[in-house]
Amino acid sequence: MDAAFTAEQDEIRRTLRDLLTAHRPGPAGGTPVAPDGYDTALWHRLSRELGLPGLALPEEYGGGGRGPAELAVALEETGRALLPSPLLATAVLAAPLILALGTDEQRTALLPSLAAGELTAALAVPGGSLSTALGLTGDLTGGAWAGGGRAGGVQARPAGGDGGWRLYGEAAQVLDGHSAGLLLVAAHTGGFPRSRTLLFLVRTDGPQPPAGLVRTRQASLDVTRPLARIELRDTEAELLGADDAVDALAALTATGRTAAVALAAEAAGAAASALERTVDYVGERERSGRAVGSFQAVKLRLADLYVRVRSARSAAYYAAWDPESGGLALAQALEALRVTTAEAVQLHGGIGFTWEDEARLYFNRAASDELLLGPVHRLRDHAAQRAGLFGQEQAGGPAGRGPAGQVAV
């Protein structure tokens, strides 16, 4: 493995950082968040000048043909700026699923528009747990994470002989779901005995919203992470894929691995920015005639945070080379972000507890990310189970323990 960044990756980082620094987007730059949750003018500029939403899509669909490492570089920079944008929902979650499962016609119709930033998308999964739906904190087999075909979740049924489908149900905490022009909805079909989860397309960018669709933006701890509740009442939808034999669960799991890499890089970038801002602040703030940052206790706290942030960043880019470790990298990055932002609030003193201060904004991002993508202990537990770190289940006791309960060696 070559740990050095390529010239192209460095150029992506430099160009994006310069643009975001000049624009100072989002609440971290003092700019109010737009009603849609992001600055559409900036989004179109990022799409047009940098090709950001199509960075990891194949060139045949108008993308840049790059890989997870380049996408991680971009997400690290947007994380540093707390950039409110549909990049995560569109490019990291929705586009890979369309690429993996879509028919040639669906890919041709949707991916070029997504790559150009003309169309945004959101992944709507029932159950309120995005990390579980992506296979990061639980097993998708059986569909219990999405209602299991029983009451709750989203149900799908064929609409008739035209090949269409109808959806009924609700999905909460849908990232950018209130403004996306395309919804990818995970729903059950086949009845309880043969229940299986499939993905469906619901276009919302027409002059009139689809019948039976209600989208409600929810209050969110992090104003840069707009969430919505999606209600479907006999709403017309299109199956993603050629037929209902597609393996949507495998596609969700694969997308979860690559998404974990991007999310880990984004969290590491936010943690690094929070730390840098804190170092600058304690270097200027004085106590008893001395800069707060000159006290040994403060230096030790900052040094510990520096190690956490650098370790999280290294784990994120290692996961770009080995996506199987994405869940662990995400856990480490989320923990580093939580600890760093909590220390940042304390070291900023009284001002750090105000809602308007940047330290509080980064703390809110840490808390909301762990609620949406974690928790950290479940990310680590599931990754350990998948890697077989606790051994195979033995007779007379749980996995890794003998009949008397002793830990197996």
From TrEMBL:
E.C. designation(s): 1.-.-.-
Record carries keyword Nuclease: no
Domain named Acyl-CoA dehydrogenase/oxidase N-terminal: residues: 6-118
MF term (GO), any: oxidoreductase activity
Domain Acyl-CoA dehydrogenase/oxidase C-terminal: 261-386
Keywords, alphabetical: FAD, Flavoprotein, Oxidoreductase
Pfam families assigned to the protein according to its UniProt record, in alphabetical order: Acyl-CoA_dh_1, Acyl-CoA_dh_N
Coiled coil: none
PANTHER family, alphabetized: ACYL-COA DEHYDROGENASE, ACYL-COA DEHYDROGENASE FADE28
Entry protein name: Acyl-CoA/acyl-ACP dehydrogenase
Organism per entry: Streptomyces poriferorum
